[in-house]
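Interim report, section 4.2 (structural modelling).
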Amino acid sequence: MEHDEKLTKLDRILEQYAGKPGALIPVLHEAQKVYGYLPEEVQYHISRGLGVPLADVYGVVTFYSLFTMTPRAEHNIAVCMGTACYVKGAGQIVEEIGEELGLKIGEISEDRKFGLEATRCIGACGMAPVLTINEEVHGRLNADQMGELLEKYKHMH
Amino acid sequence: MSHSSHILICRGTACVSAESREVQTEFGKQLKQRGLQEQVRVVHTGCFGFCARGPVMVILPQGTMYCEVRVEDVREIIEKHILGGQTVERLLFKDPVTQEVTEKIDDIDFFKKQVRIALKNCGHINPDDIREYIARDGYKALGTVLTKHSPEEVINIIKKSGLRGRGGGGFPTGLKWELTRKSPGKLKYVICNADEGDPGAFMDRSILEGDPHSVLEAMAIAGYAIGAGQGFIYVRAEYAIAVQRLTTAISQAREMGVLGKGLFETDFEFDIELRLGAGAFVCGEETALITSIEGNRGEPRPKPPFPAQAGLWGKPTLINNVETLANIPAIILNGAEWYAGFGTEKSKGTKVFAIAGKIGNTGLIEVPMGITLREVIYDIGGGIPEGRKFKAAQTGGPSGGCIPAGLLDTSIEYDTLLEAGSMMGSGGLIVMDDSDCMVDIAKFYLEFTCDESCGKCTPCRVGTKRMLEILERITEGKGTIDDIDLLKELGHGIKEASLCGLGQSAPNPVLSTLKYFEDEYIAHARDKVCPAGVCKKLSSIRIVPEECKKCGACAKVCPVDAIEGKPRELHEIDPDKCIKCGKCIEKCCFKAIKR
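Predicted structure of the assembly:
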């Protein structure tokens, strides 16, 4: 792995957690913040840095849904599929976005601009149905508004 | 410096998504422009609970509540309310059913029947300022405990209060503390379970966002009682605002000397570390949570040994849920008898519920145990909107079940809900109306548990998958009447044989809907009809000729050209082409298209 800026950051993270019990998950969180995802090389580096077998690192990465081994899209659309959102029509929202962008759940558009996923309840049930784009929460939605909402992000970098 | 007015703006997750942050910034800007920043103080608070009407704000001293406040409304509120002394009528709460307008927060029905103990500070204080918590008797309970009570006395107070675990199980909290205290070993831990995963439950998130110090204080009290010096809070990483507030709270508490060494000039020391979850529902189960903090895949392990005997890194560990802990300081300050005075014989105190779904006032409420479902749904929740009929209330999330209309007068207690085939759970309460299909809802929950099953034990890993396949068959019109019996048999088997709470409760949504809505299952499996018109393969869409005004709007919106007919002619849907997307139903202004 090349010695680049990201790697320096990762090394600093590993240093900070060295010798701490139960450090793997916090380190993976931080590493994913740096890289955006957790490719094999990063996992290998973490395994060496913490002295945890690579199989265990891989096991943890694949167990938890927030860790990903594929790069994220520029705008990650996560439609909440909690019960409150579901009974208030989250299904139709997914359909509408899927139609608009030509994506199915779990897919990323070819230009890496949009990714579509279903997420667990984010606890904003009062505003159901909700979705998040990147970190921002959008609530009280209906399927008709999707075109307009996406249009805003299509021109955003 | 004293301010003549305070503007409290909710900055909980729901209100933030409705741009309460921008509203607050705008208030700050405009007040400064007018030189009013000395007279009017703008405070951001945690959740008021009135999420459906967010962003919400309250102006003190009048106690006026404004709902759905936009940035554009700020000028009018300053000019009319702050300077003019009049209320801005159009932003006041208007009852969705009676259309009655209410000005003061305390007069709104939603708030009137509530008793706030765990939520006492939510919506009243700035969660990012420890001084506001202290001003409302914060950390006084910790001080009292450390200087006046022995650990055994503290445990006795909690035992007498009758407090039971609010995370779902309902285990007596005082007993749990006592067991952990009595376990041999010098090193012990306190863990706060903030891995709130039930879809539709957001009480823990709101407490952490609105009153993080109450949880820190309670953890320190628990640490003193059981003999632990270190605590962990395991919180969902998805709860960004809660994580941020907790981080601030912990560092402020250390600075103030209420966390760390030599607390209240005694030898007692206690510190807290934050651990983020990574999106695994099963980690809400206590043994899985411990495994996760240790840095592993969050898989549960058999009990016994219970965490109280051998928990985190093999040491005796006390795990309490956020809401349970939030009750502790109030119990210490007001006494066990006071707390036990609320609720019923076997379920003492209050419970926070997150009410959502097909209900007028979605949001967060805290009510005394023993209140009936009817009171919660109709008196506080404002009933079912759009003139629809109540069908069922789902409590307990994927581990719970559905309670039908016939049992609306059931009082809310741990045991009565279990008898009804559901459970208290963490307090999510989702209301469903006659347009919801119970088989589809059961399938929804099974999809959830099947996906979240960690895979360690076979009954849960394979069993939930098989149940889901059967439900898929039934909802696609390929089921048979025997499938219903198979579901029951599998469900009971999984409950008996699974390793942890997730598997032991996973069949509940199916079994409880089978108990009360078996006719819907039969309609799907035998008659190939979905009575609610939700399951697409089992419903058809038709145009009612007498009501069709021949406008042609439906034909234009149909994505697959399944609607034939020219304008001014009667339209018909070609059932072979129709994909039952329902676009035409939404489009038709005359409600002439029906499922």
